[in-house]
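Notebook entry, structure prediction.
Reason for the run: the old model in the group folder had no record of what sequence produced it. Starting over properly, with the input documented here first.
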Amino acid sequence: MSDQQHRTTLGRGSYEEVVRVGDVLRKETVGGMLLVAAALLAIVWANSPWAETYFSIRDTELGYEPWHLRLSIGSWAADGLLAIFFFMVGLELKKEIVIGDLRRWDRAVVPVAAAVGGVVVPALIYVAVNWGDSDVLTGWAVPTATDIAFAVAVLAIIGSHLPPALRIFLLTLAVVDDLIAILVIAIVYTSDLELPMLAWSLIPLALYALIARRRRPLFRGSMLPAWLILLPIGIVFWALVHASGIHATIAGVILGFTVPVRLKAERGEPTHEGAHGLAEVFEHRLRPLSAGVAVPVFAFFSAGVAVGGLDGLTSALMAPVTIGIVLGLVVGKIIGITGTTWLVTRLRGANLDPSLRWIDVAGVSVLAGIGFTVSLLVAELSFGVGTELGDEAKVGIFVASLLAALLGAAILTARNRHYRAIAEEETVDADEDGIPDVYQADGSHHP
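New structure, fully documented this time:
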């Protein structure tokens, strides 16, 4: 790699990474639209004459008391279904580390630092707005999250010709952001830790990891494949983690990390770079379930807020918790992500890649202000379900996500028009192999 490439921030990356990220973004787009539709349905229902039915369904309890599994339907969606989403986050994060941009520090340092800045600055803004009110300050983590599905859906609709580097930056940024959110949930929102349950959970976890790392299905012939055997083991691990006092979604991330990304060669069998492991199977089978069912159902039961008409909405919009969240997500993300990216670039003695402009980075930073899914989860963990502060926090999340989506779309739509000619030229400029020459000329494609 040349010195110039070392001094460049947010370069185009390899062709394989562009294809992989493009595939992920396409799959998340439909999920983002379903997420928005489910949230809108919940808001309308919760403020309709039939609102009592909505809240009655959400608060209906199901399950058994042992292992603390007597939960409301809303809690089952947050603790159970959302674990599938976090399992996918774990898989994607491991992919980024093993075969994505996070495997190389020179490429990982910018999105990692930007994600940290995009968490710290919104939290500081929220704390500054609500300083002195200890009850409200417990929600400091609410404006730190980025909803990858929602943000990606907006980017896919308005950014068809944006440089691939921007899409990679958004996805990597969101994945690292999710990791930080996971750590916050695990550390801050874990109470009454039961060590015996946590110790017991290590048994199914070890068994899960052992089976997941096998090169072939657990049993040959007509026996069940490994992924089908792993499912009940994973459920047992999830239940034990839930009973230990750690938020059950963390179980999904841990299980995702145990799944191999590449195939492991057995004795006497060759393997090759980039060979896909069980992670590819899980992603194929579970991404539609996560994006099409788990996240929209969680959004449906979490987004329902009775604002109490125009007066209630006005009161909620003026609440300090709402103002802190809106400023944190909309303003804090722009300052935190763009500012940190600029600072790290300067400290490394680098320049922004010639194919990009800082307004592009700012546009992606605005989209990162769409908090939604993880923000809703953190709001419920911070303030509880159905509380006044919780409802105000949700109003803040809705308003901030809408503003971030509209402002981000406005910026990136203008930039999309600018890049249209360049993107079309690169698409046309390809050999019979279908790979744009620009990736072959700089050696970023490796067959």
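Summary: Residues 3-189+247-427 form a domain with the Na+/H+ antiporter like fold fold (CATH 1.20.1530.10).
The old model has been moved to the deprecated folder.
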